[in-house]
Amino acid sequence: MRRDRADLFSVRNGALVGGLVLYQVASSLYPLLSPLIGFFFCYAVLLKEEEEKTMKERFWLRNAIFGYLIFTELNKGFYLFSTLMFLFLFYALVVDWIKSAFKCRPCILVAFVASGYVGVFATNTLLAYIMNTSFFAFGWEYALYIATDAVLAIILFRDRL
């Protein structure tokens, strides 16, 4: 039987999705593990810029990022689609300003990650205020999550800007 490249692609992506689900379960059990919201937020922004630059659409990858962010929202108690709402607003209004304000690439990545966490928290707080419900406070864990995701983003995405 002949091996096909599409089979390897499917196996690799299946293993990646399974690993991310297991990591999400582990981050639910151990609260100091980062939920990787800022990392995938940064990756979504970089992917959108790459799509605009090359005029190639990365449909599967973009939808996998959106799926992970929605799964994380459901798992961590955020309002559904709040991350995607903030991502679209952030990309339309803030990305160009951040890229022109910061000149060093790692600073841009850190700004994307930090904006992801702070913006998602602000969006959820705004939705909680509109619905007149309580929402959890911004704690020191978020600083740990931002630092962890920023280091991961700098290591993996420094050549993508």
From TrEMBL:
Keywords: Membrane, Transmembrane, Transmembrane helix. The chain crosses the membrane at residues 21-46, 77-95, 107-131, 137-157. This is Uncharacterized protein. It comes from Sulfurospirillum tamanense. The lineage of its organism: Bacteria, Pseudomonadati, Campylobacterota, Epsilonproteobacteria, Campylobacterales.
